[in-house]
Amino acid sequence: MSNTSRCALVTGASSGIGRSTAVALAEAGYAVAVAARRREPLDELVAEIESSAGKAVAITADLTKPDDIRRVWTDATEKLGGPIDCLIANAGRGLQGGVTTSDDTQWRQMVELNLTGTMDLMRLAAESMRTGTGVRDIVVIGSVVGVNVSPFSAVYGATKFAIGAAAESLRRDIGKEGIRVTVIKPGIVTTEFQEVAGYDAETFGTAVAKFGRPLSADDVARSIRFVVEQPEGVHINDLMIRPTGQDYP
């Protein structure tokens, strides 16, 4: 339990990568605030962490709403009893299809969540962490399709290209103050993401079967923990993690 003094906020924590990351950080000794829209899975996650002698609190919020974003940061700080020095900006969603084939009624909501909401949270974190000392981390969950264009997830990929650029800009702005900004870019990960995005056996399963075993949420969580556990002065700022057999994207 080497990080009992660190407090983390994990968004999109009701399932998938966010949930696994909250567990991984709690196991490392972090006090963890978990945020998402759905209360029941958050309460179950908190109970799981507390059953292993960890500290966790649940906060429900819609991270497309600026008021909720500010409340999440304030509530997490107050409920954990200390400043947040580790943000895992994981809340986001996908959308199957290209520019001409995806459901354009979902575009704006996805941009508001994946990009605008995440940038709002990044700014809040940067402003707060600037008053702190020691190791401070802002970790943004990107995607391999935020580097390699995919015609099968064009608008989702566009949000991940954009958030990667925003994170790199923030890194250059606040890195000199000792705050580390990292983008994690997973490849194919099997979670609820595919169902929410509208993928099915034809648009997802058949296409990725050739890659072999896909990543699990735990695989990505281990990478996130590795990044934030680096000693002060060491920064892994850009990390892509793929299944071994995934050649593209």
List the helices and strands and how they pair.
Layout: E1 7-11, H1 16-27, E2 31-36, H2 39-51, E3 55-60, H3 66-80, E4 86-89, H4 107-129, E5 136-141, H5 154-174, E6 179-186, H6 193-197, H7 201-208, H8 217-228, E7 238-241
Parallel strand pairs: 1-2, 1-4, 2-3, 4-5, 5-6, 6-7
Describe the protein.
The protein has 249 residues and is of the alpha/beta class. Helix content is 44%, strand content 16%. The chain has helices at residues 16-27, 39-51, 66-80, 107-129, 154-174, 193-197, 201-208, 217-228, and strands at 7-11, 31-36, 55-60, 86-89, 136-141, 179-186, 238-241. A 7-stranded parallel β-sheet has the order 3-2-1-4-5-6-7, with helices on both faces. α1 (16-27) packs across α8, α3 packs across α4 (107-129) and α4 runs parallel beside α5 (154-174). The chain is globular.
What sort of overall outline do the alpha carbons produce when their principal axes are compared? globular
DSSP helical segment count: 8
Backbone CA Rg:
17 Å
Q: SS-based structural class?
A: alpha/beta
Mean pLDDT: 93
Question: How many strands in all?
Answer: 7
Query: What is the spatial order of strands in the main beta sheet?
Result: 3-2-1-4-5-6-7
Instruction: Give the N-terminus to C-terminus distance in angstroms.
Output: 37 Å
The run of helices and strands is EHEHEHEHEHEHHHE
SS strand fraction: 15-25%
Question: Roughly what percent helix?
Answer: 40-55%
Low-confidence stretches: none
Task: Specify the biggest β-sheet.
Answer: 7 strands, parallel
For the structure shown, list the relevant keywords.
single chain, 249 residues, alpha/beta, seven-stranded parallel β-sheet, 8 helices, globular
